[in-house]
Write the structure tokens for this entry.
Amino acid sequence: MPPYTKNRIFHTNTENNNMDEQKIKILYAEDDTLCAELTKHILEKEGFEVKTTADGAQAWNAYRENRPDLLLLDLDMPEKDGLEVTRLVREHDTQTHIIVYTTHSEPAKEIAILDAGADEFVCKERSPEVLVAHLNHIRTKILQHKQTPHLFRLSEHTTYQAATRILTIDGSRTEVKPTDGRMLQLLCAKRNEVAEREYLVQGIWGNASMNKDPELKKYASHVRTLLKDDPSLTLKYTGDGYILTDATSATNQKHTTLKDAVRSILRHK
């Protein structure tokens, strides 16, 4: 179970009762101005209402002034970083979805922010369509008043609730063993992109991470067995780590990355 959920009662976000009559509000904290402007433009075209802040301190102030429906955080920012903002938010709010939108960072930082209460990662090196796909899925949950912390919808058939370690495939529920559940949570948080070996080892065993490759392979095999009744889900070893993919997901398609889009804008300035 993620540490921030211990001894805490989840509550319904009553502020969003009329959500279906308004746009989903995103608070986006990003210290790269061009990246922030481009992402804001893309998301507003998709129908989201986006407020940007240039650092974590501004993000925390903006959150307290007007609670958003979703937080989009860069991990490394001045003043307060994404980890500190996540910890502050989770002291008061277990419902608001938090996506860490960043380039690959140190595994220890990624594990720390995940355990502080962030829901998932989206890498900036992937196409903007990947981020939009994640946000559209979350928008659907919010509009249907199904905002459940750490609930991952892996495919049309499968969900995984990391806080309770309940895996559901076509209505059939399984309580997953603790280490298998932790492995699955780490993969879910980076689904459709590579969860690197060091990230997985750090997330399961912390600093006691020597000679863990055989055990990592064993738990990957356990996860494959858990997911075998959903043929659309695949867990592959890549050489650098493991990647959990949904064969029907649009996020597997190749598109222009955000970084490429920024370069294109700079060339035409």
About this structure: The chain has nine helices and twelve strands. The CA atoms of residues 126 and 140 lie 22 Å apart. Confidence is low (pLDDT under 50) at residues 4-21, 250-255.
